[in-house]
Every structure is written in C-alpha cells, then in structure tokens.
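Running log. JK asked me to keep both predictions on one page so they can be read side by side. First protein, sequence followed by its tokens:
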Amino acid sequence: MKAIGSFLTPEQRLSDLAKGKNSGTKIIVTAAITGSIHTPTMSPDLPITPQQIADEVLRVYQAGGAVAHIHVRNPETGQPSSDMALFREVLTKVKSRCNIILCLSTGAGLGMTTEERLRVVSTFQPEMASLNCGSMNFGIFRPLQTIKDFKHPWEKAYLAMTEDFVFPNTFKTLAEFFQVFSRNQTKPELEIYDAGMISNIAYMIEQGHLKTPIYLQFVLGILGGILASPHSLIFLRDHAREVLQDFVWSVCGAGRHQIPLCTMALTLGGNVRVGMEDSLYVGKGIKAKSNAEQVEKVVRILRELSLEPATPDEARQILGLKGLDKVNW
C-alpha cells in the first residue's frame, strides 16, 4: 500500500495499467447518500427517512463502498435537517450492521448557522466529517427552469433562494471548525469547489489550525464553483501539489460528470465519490434506483483498471482515522 501523501503520476499509473499491474493502491470509494441539493420531486428513490438512509448505506457497503457521506432529512417532507435525533438513528442503525466509515456532513442544509453545522461533530465525535474550505456562490436553482410542480412547498423556495445566496466559510469560521474537529479527533474531509480553497487550506496549515496529512475532496460542477472537466481536475490536483504537502485526494462530479470524472481520477492516482447527493443517474437517461448502483458501476470500472476497492479498515489506514471504537454513538 502506498504511504499517505505519496503520489502516482499519470504516466506511472497508466504504465502500470498497460502492463496489467496493480499499482498497489486500494481505491477508497465513497457514496454521498442523500445530500441537501436534490429534492424529493426530482427522484422517487432519493433516500429520505433514517431507515431508508441506513438501508442505502448497507447496500453501498455490500457493493464495495468504504465511506458513506451522511446528511439527514425531515422524514415527512424530505427537507434537509440538522436534527441530532435523526443523525443518531441513522448512525446507530448502520453501526449495528457494518463497519463502514461514516463521514458526517457539516454542510447540512444551505442557510444553516455555523453552530448548527458543527453540532454533529461535537455530539457524535465521528471518525470523519466534511469541511467546506471557502465561501462561494452556491447555485442549485437551475431545476426551476424545468420543474413546475413540486411535491412539497419548501422545495421551490429552497432552490430559488440560492440565486441570491453565498455559502459562508470565512477564515474565522474555518479556524473555529478546525478547533472543534481537532478537539474531537475527527478527520476533516476538505471539500474543494475551486482553486482558491486550496490556498485557504495552505493558510490554515501555516497558522497551525490544520495538521498534515490531509484528505482533499475535489467537488466539480456546482454552479459557482469550478467547471466539471478533465482540465479542471488536473489543474486542481497539480495546484494542490504545488502548495500543499501530505495529502490523499478524491473527486466527485455533479450530474452527468460523475462517472467520467471518477474514471479519470482512477488513472491519476485518486479516489472516487459517487452517490445520489451528486447525481441521480447511473447512466445517460437512466435514473439510479439506489446509491449502490453507482458504487457497483465505479467498482466495475476500477477493477477493469486492475485496481481494487479499499475495505473500510483499509481506508481507515490510508486516511489515518481514529477507529470506529472511538466515536460517540
């Protein structure tokens, strides 16, 4: 297994694959189960209730996923929620059934306060949680152009408000986030939506708020962030190499870009994230019935490249996590 922070150049990875040789790197497959971007009207199969979310996590685990990225929703309306009781129900149901890594969201629903977003870390002391690394326009209002009738009144208003919304992650709040993460021994999954966020991370390391090695999740294709393209992915990876030291990285792409960008990441030495938070489809024009369908597809692809999905415990070793026995649920 490669040491944390070591890299394969595209030439090294492609050379290994051309020889039919496994590079020695196990691939961490993450599934973002439900998110806070899509709304119930967009898919009848979007997991909503704690039981549905927990069942999806088990399917992801059985399909080869090592990490599940967790948001929760109001079980009656599907609206994004920061209710700790809903999180606890999901976490305990999953822990009783498998040892998958649960990465809790501190993005929560758009418009929530810093305190609301951090509560999952201080309450549950998870092995890993997401940490958004800079402020940005975060536009998810485009579906309003095509969807006229919604199942719930909140959906239209929620999407519409993002046309005039800035997702705030200031230097002050980033420092506060890192303090809470450090205090609870929670590894941050550093979510990168644009190049400036890499510079923000470098500053946080310089100021002592964040210690290496770090884990980067490149998020491509959100309106307001960097475009989802091969050039963007190579640029972000190379820029991170310039200004950061020890890191492991992964990528997710919004919508139709999900599988192509994940496939590209596999040839560049990266890990991958799929899931219904990022895309509701498993192929062109084919809606996913579950997150597991997307995991199964990316696992097939990585195995065609003579790679193997990491188990949860292998992913813990790669990422340097504290272990499932040290969480608070």
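And the second, directly underneath as requested:
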Amino acid sequence: MNKAVFLDRDGTVTEEVGYLSDLTMLRLLPDAGAAIKKLNQAGFKVIIVTNQSGVARGLFPESLVHEAHARLAQMLEKEGARLDGVYYCPHHPKAGNLHYTMACDCRKPGTGLVDRAVKELDIDPILSFMVGDKWSDVELGQRAGMKSVLVRTGFAPDDSGNMRPEHVKDPDFTARDLSETVELILKDVHR
C-alpha cells in the first residue's frame, strides 16, 4: 500500500482568497511547489482534498473547479512537482438552491474524499498525513486514521472564523507553512 499526504487546497497550497471565482485569483503560496516536489521525491502520493461549496452556493460553476485544478497542476509542474489526485466536494448542507445542496459524506470533515482516494490509489491511512489550515482538516485526519498537521497559513489556528470544536484533539503537528510541514513529516517517517 502507498503512503500519502492529503493537502487542503485554499490556504495550504494556494492563497486563501475566499471563493475562487476567477482563475486569475489562483496563486501558489511561497515554496508550496518545492514542498510538494520533496514529498514526490520521498515517495508520497500527494492528493488535494478540498471543499468547494461555492458551487452549491451558485458563486461559480463546477467547471471552474476543474479548470482551477488543471491550472494548479500546470503551476506545480513548472516547479517540478505533481499531484497524484484531486478530490473535491461541491456540496453544502444548507446553502444554495441547487442539486448540490445536501448533507454528504465528502464535505470535510467527512471522510468521503479520503475514502475514495484510499480505495482508488491503494493508500494506507496509517502511513499517511492530512495537512490543512482549518480545524475541519485536523478532524478529517483524525477520523480517517491519519496524522494531522495544522498550518498557520490561510485560516490560521488563531483566526476567529476557524474555531476549534471541543471534540477535536490537538493535531500531531502545527507548522508555519507547507515547507515546514514537509520537514516535520520527513523527520517523523525517519524516526
């Protein structure tokens, strides 16, 4: 089975811009490409898992999500990095008035996106990590049986809009950014 690093997209790999409704808003965070390249070289599958409720809210079409991920792959390729998979949730349990408005198991912290990737890419969650800038990312990692890393980019841990639920335990690591995260992950696996 494969080991993997699951990455939240907005605020972890790319700049947090609210709802990405225009491709010109898509920008890599500093050193994100180099960090992902190190994970590639270390033998990790690198997978994006992202909530994209802007689709359910009617802020942008689902086709824009696909275009953004294609653009992201191109940006990373220019830095010698690659993604092994991209999984997203276009749903929201209450917002919107479309067929995307529903409770689902793929919206983080639900494990649906990770479950699909584990099955499709033959991943062992015990050997894997979940990295993100929100407590829902930490909770997802814990629910899926992975180690979790909270990064201080995007919706940082001290952001009032990113309150920690009482039932969520401390992440395994807290890091300044994706670059520091990769250093922590590589140290952890070489213990």
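Observation for JK regarding the second prediction: DSSP finds five helices and six strands in the chain.
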